[in-house]
Amino acid sequence: MYNKRVNNKFCILPWISLSIGTDGQIHPCCQVVPFENPDNIRDYQGDEYQKTPNLNRLRKQFLAGECPSECSQCFVQEDQGGVSMRMIKNNAWKEVVEEQKFDHDPLSLVEFDIRFSNVCQLSCLTCEPLFSTSWYQYEKENPISKEKKVLRSFENVESIDQFVKDHGSHLRLLTVTGGEPLLEPLALEFFHRIDNQNIELNLNTGLMLPESVLQKNLDELKKFKNIKVAISLDGIAQHAEKIRRGLDWNLFLSNLNLFKKEIGEEHLYFQITCSSLNAGSICEVLNWIHTEHRSMLIRTLLNFVHSPRKYNSQLASPSQKDEWMRSNHSLLKSKLFQNLNDDEYGHILKLLAQVSTFLQSAP
Fold it and tell me: Do 269 and 230 touch, CB atoms closer than 8 A?
């Protein structure tokens, strides 16, 4: 039984959350190091999803005050003074953490993180075939498979119907990534079937899809009472097209404007993936956001590339890291940023501090 007074390593996610990869592998969240012997959603049904051998083991370890090796990323972040997914989720479900008597059995599934497929029209340099079908043409760079393969977590509409029947009434947070989820027909089927009034939908998109396909998705997404959309943005214009191969900057801008019109700018935010390809130009991206979509600036978030290792900015030389940070701070002090308000300036400093902390951390 969990006792919050003596166990400060506890994480609620193995009790209330599932994260499903494009290949159907089951984990409690997207931060977990993949299990050595992973479980797959296709081998289970109903509440069995939450009772796999790996999830059962994690719950036992957390109840015992242990730090599962698969959860090392959170504990490393905390040791470095950062805020981890474990801390965020324990706080988000604070009342449950403090009042619930936890044992080895899971609670109702309330958070669901799903990659419906690896279907994607982009082949970003920092990605791989597991997350993008467009990557297979670059087999020599990343020889994972000899043939193009579409991976899908749910096999068909019937399996989605069954999942919604078993868990739909309990879900409160739905996170959908990819691939490009707006290109996956099964994602649209899921959106159509789920309760769009009592669920918060968090969606990630690269915005590279035909307007007709985007409009069909927007018609469904508009029905959600609570929605947040992360727009992937790693560079501006030609720099963006270089990092995110297959991206058309003009189409990106057109689709972004359509999203703003249909969903509302207040529901959108940019997410920058920091790598050795753009670590020195983070402020260039932030300046563009400030100029073109100012209200979205303070909602902009960062994440960081760990693999492929050649794009892991932590592996750069000390002099290169210093040059990246000088470049960012130099632009921040220039005339381009003169009319920032206190909140905007503070947010940019916070993002740059995250970059600096990541660069100085061990890979």
Answer: yes
CB proximity list for 299: less than 8 A, separation 6 or greater: 268, 269, 270
Q: Cα(280)–Cα(277) distance, rounded to whole angstroms?
A: 8
Whole-number Cα distances in Å, 344 to 234, 284, 295: 19, 15, 9
Give the model's pLDDT for residue 45: 83
CB 329 within 8 Å of CB 352: yes
Rounded to whole angstroms, how far apart are CA atoms 353 and 345?
Answer: 12
Identity of the amino acid at 90: N
Separation in Å, CA 24 to CA 30, 136, 218, 292: 13, 19, 26, 39
pLDDT digits (tens, 9 = 90+) for 25-37: 999 999 898 899 9
DSSP 298: G
Instruction: Tell me what percent of the chain is helix, strand and coil, each rounded to the nearest 5.
Output: 50, 15, 40
pLDDT value at residue 1? 44
Q: How confident is the model at residue 3 (pLDDT cuts 50, 70, 90)?
A: very low
Q: Give yes or no for a contact between 70 and 33, defined as CB atoms under 8 angstroms apart.
A: yes
Residue in 292, 164, 170, 147 with CA at minimum distance from that of residue 231: 292
Instruction: Return the structure tokens found at 18.
Output: 């599932």
Confidence label for 6 from pLDDT (cuts 50, 70 and 90): very low
Rg (CA), the chain: 21
The most distant pair of C-alpha atoms in the chain lies apart, rounded to whole Å, by: 58
List, in sequence order, every residue forming a beta bridge with 273; answer none if it has no partner. 303
Q: What is the dihedral of CA 155, 112, 124, 180, to 10 degrees?
A: 50
